[in-house]
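LAB NOTEBOOK - FOLDING QUEUE
OPERATOR: T.R.
BATCH SIZE: 2
PURPOSE: Compare the predicted structure-token outputs for two unrelated chains run back to back under identical settings.
PRIORITY: normal
REVIEWER: second-year student, initials M.K.

ITEM 1
FIELD SEQUENCE / FIELD STRUCTURE:
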Amino acid sequence: MTEVGKFWRTAAQRRLNRRMILTYGGAAGAGLAALALAGCGSKSGSGSKQKGGANAQNQPKRGGNLVLPLNFQQGFDPHIVTVSQTSTYGYFYQNLVRTNPRTYQVEPEIAQKWESPSPTEIVFTIAPNVAWHNKPPANGRPLKVDDIIFSYNRAKTNDPRFIYKSGLASIDKMEATSANTLKLTLKGPNAYQLGNLAIAGLKILAPEVVDAAKGNFGEAATAVGTGAFVLQSRELNVGSVMVRNPSYWKPGLPYLDRIDGRVFQDLGSQWSAFLAGRTDKDVVPGDQSSDIETKHKDQYNLDWNGDQAGYMLIANTKRKPLDDARVTRALRLLVDHTEYKNAWAAQWFGRGRFASIFPAALENWDLTEDEYSKYLEYKTPKDDAVKEAVSLLTAAGVSKDKPLKFTIAGVQTGGGDYNTASRQLVQAQFKRLGQGLVEPDLQGFEEAAFTPLRASGQFDYYAAGNSPGGIQPDDWFSDNYQTGGSRNYGKMSDSKLDQMIENQRTILDENQRKKAIRDIIIYMLDTSPYTFQAGVFDLNASKKDVMATPPEGKSFKWSEHYELVWRNS
């Protein structure tokens, strides 16, 4: 394999498992036989057939319905909504390429194949017969290369609402070189660009649908895609109906006739519905995961997943006194990550691990638990960290007479939830360990209200989930930590870090890039005003008769793969 071939094969390593993604829209299966893994040739990423894995009694069956906990709460514009929503849009929208949920490599989607003539060029051949849903105003017309260019230019819009623009930042030029060929020219070598195109928020839209929506994607009629299912109806906070796309461009798919979405008031009632058999898949509540795994493993399909979301604590570095590096460093030292891991993560998700800049799904790129435990912020007991934090706060002019006061903001879904619990926990830690120097208060928002507030920097400090929609290390670097990143909500800026991030993108050898990323993690442990509460893992459960193609692929993670799900009943 040449360096160019290795370049794109390395670029294809990805995973995606956010808790809200898993809760509200997960998808299935390891991959369609006709759409094999890409990127293994010396310069080509064309598909090749996988081996069949289904035995006689487990051959896919056409027909049947599925009921999922699914809430299309934020409308249907994938370029501006959070990952918890846009990840569920894969039932009806599609990306140029997508991620295989078992191998975590990039595989074809709208693009049938691709090749890389050089490390700064990717040429995609669009699959034949791709067509828009037969809904106005697209009315079933064929997809054009210009639709893809339009969508990417829209997603790159210089507006804080368009939160996935960082995934396209390295693209210098987009050209329709023929009726079915798209050429991307990059600004320089980027080991991640191919995988970036599979980010959940970079779905392809029809220009006429965007024009007709006039900025309001609030109704089911505006969800016009090229995917396996057609969104027939959506009643806000009640449910939705998706039916088989009768003109789907992939022959024989999807298997299911219909997917019904059900909305629940809280995770408790949602889980009760699954146990009662009223839904077909759910995420196991963290405090019940051990019991389900040991006592009910023969009753359900079970699968642990490292969460793709980062549960983060972010200081707004543009607000005083949080613009003082001594203050933000002190706040990090007052976080008890062991308590977050063993109490909060275990209760709400099932398992936890130490983390600082990457979620659990990226643990192979992260420091180990033992390595983290040697750093002051993660040491137990917290005595030395508290002493250093008090010294820093005092030097910054904080005292018991003039305590540090700020508001910890975040999402609040009502009835008690992991976001609320996280804010309450970090507030309690600051008060308990801060020796009277830190007095934060709390404020919760509905997710629809919190998203624009966070994007515009209207907060002091927040504790909430965050995700760039992809799970390569650079998705996090470019979106969350680099100067100007579309999800760098606290506006941190560090020229040395920026250069380190730029450098690791150009390293084609994965082992060498891992070393560079390790150096970044260690540097950010001392300098970043952001930190993670903990990395978390979820246990997913589905009914035994819910199958995927091939049948061993039972991790129903991502909505775009539900075209491969079938009922064995």
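ITEM 2
FIELD SEQUENCE / FIELD STRUCTURE:
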Amino acid sequence: MNQQAAMQSVGVSVQRSDAAAKTSGKSIYTADIELPGMLHAKVLRSGKAHARIVSINATKARRMPGVLAVLTRDDLPDGRPDSYGYFIKDQPIVALDKVRYEGDVIVAVAGVDEGAANRALATIEIEYEDLPPVPDMAAALAADACELFEDAPLAMAPAYGLGASGELRPAKNVCYAFRYETGDAGVFDQCDHIFEDTFEFPRMNHFHLEPFVAVANWTDDGRLEIWSSCQNPFPVRKELARLFTMAETDIAVQVPFVGGGYGSKNGCKNEPIAALLSKMSGRPVRYCATIEEGFLINTQHAARLRLRTGVMADGRLMARQSEIHLDAGAYSDGSPLVAEKAGYRIPGPYRYHHIDSVCHCVMTNTAPAGPFRGFGGTQATWASESQIDMIAHRLGMDPFDMRMKNLINAGEPFVPGESAIDSDLRQGLELVAAEIGYHDRQRKPNRGIGVAIGFKDGGGVNKPAQARVKVSTNGDIFLYCGTIEIGQGVQSAMSQVVAEIMCVPPGRVRYMAVNTDTTPFCQGTNASSGVAVMGQAVAHAADELKKQVLDFAAGQLQCAADDLRLDDWSMLKGNERFSLAPMVMGHYGGTGFEFTADGFHKAESDHGAPLETQCVFWEVSWSAVEIEVDPETGQINIEKLVVSGDAGRAINPSVCRGQDEGSAVMGIGQTLFEEMLYDGTSLVNGEALRYRVPLAQDLPESFISITQEQGLGPGPFGAKGMGEGGILPIAPAVANALEDALGVRVSGLPLTPERVLDALNKAKQ
């Protein structure tokens, strides 16, 4: 990429291209799609947690007025795949032999409206044979536990490199295990102290405002059209092609604006049911889940993390051994990927001589768990950053000083075979500490200050990205790439990258609608990969396009391309300006021409890297918090919160700031309120009014976000990805501040008044 282009667009907070449509209510989401003759789907979900299905009687439902299709296990096509998933194909389109959690889909109905579908569902009769429930990880791992999957589903384990390994079904009710080990375990014998602590992390809901929704239309010529609220349309297309034994050319997945996903909208969700009902009825079908159903479709993993850390008397970290159990729920979904990330990220941004991490995905009769913003980093950072403070206090050290002593240097590999850290970790920590007044504060009763660092590998593993840019005769630019606008402002940022390289105002670049028929391939919108991975593909395409235009103009003006400069679709040659449109029409004819270029990016495969390719970039975030705690009630009030992330180079500073602040607010919810509560296998707070998320009144009185631009990123103009990092350090920073305020440690989230009071009572005893 030509880094010498005059800065015109990058680094400027231009108005987002989707702002007008979204603020006026005119923006189109999948839930807004309406096709002629469209039917509406509803599903019958299991009220049993674990039971064999003896029989399903849907005779009355099929005869109900306004019902055009009923889907049960008996209606699935013979000889075709009937289950889907990431690496493990274990989630059936509708329940087959048995149900595995309260919420499992058994029957789907398509009616002329949702009322007709719901009335039909009420007539369905199901006979069950109860099986022993497995409500939690302890029960699932017990020797006498009932097995959720007696037979192994179709599955594969990804390849790993130096020190890493994965295993399918290593134990009963464990669908996957990831392990990473480096260094000599004998390092523990050299340590002056070894500390062992256990941390609990709750199950959470993604709570995106747009529900899970898909619209399917099976056309007369046998083609399947899908409109989906998903984050990865190309993998969804591939999975649908496998399920229905179709060519991918016969499936088109279109994704309009997505109203939030936070990881949950990866992979198939509503699409297979909508597609089958459309096939059966011969009509378009819309399947839109309610917010309450969303609690049963995908969640964040609950976790139990045991850390054993060896240190020297002067605070030097030497070795860390960790054992993590993730509650995968009834189906594997993205659990193997989350296990990989939780196990890999558990050391945090610190230098160790020995690391041994193992993470197990445990299956239970609860809602399936999958990717969540931070992708295993939320669980790992909670435990790691909490224990760093705990160790510091035990050694009589300041937690800030202990971090500064052990942080990995910029330019130093995270672990052997891995890429180098691309942020100055100490600089960021100093920044938030200074802003909170860490070093010069006056101690006040019941008030405390805490710091923490969020740290994760970013950009996805071995992730390819393609982009296409074309420019019309009049200089209007069309950008095609598969990164989904999910609220993060990616359309504006990508358009700014193209505008910068092509030397035009951002308003001349249009981000084209995502359709798998015409959009170049993208693996998915996740892992903060938009600018860092797809951005490089976009920049390569724009650079090639610019070269084509310069070469063309050089031929027309009979000079060298180096003698010309592109400026808002004109060529500058010395003091002369030449409009490109007349040149193009003069050469290609009055109808003109479009120059087109493609770009591609993928990190090189590297068997010496633990995850088979080196990390694209390191997403780092720092947080400092001041809290006040009421020792009589246990209530925590966040008085001041400072968050900071390193954007490398901020393409659009206001968008970067919004990502950090929104992520931090989600972190507040994770810290103080959010938890899916189960009574055995029954979810008791799975509705919007009973699931507590942060309100305006919960925001800190002082909320400061600082976007750093350390300039070491691999993306266009030195950019790095943002979006996930801000959530990671909030919970441990608050827990650390709680210990600073009252001298008690709470090792389980959320930090509710009850947990704080319990810790105080135990301390008194």
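REVIEWER COMMENT (ITEM 2): The mean pLDDT is 96.
FOLLOW-UP: none requested
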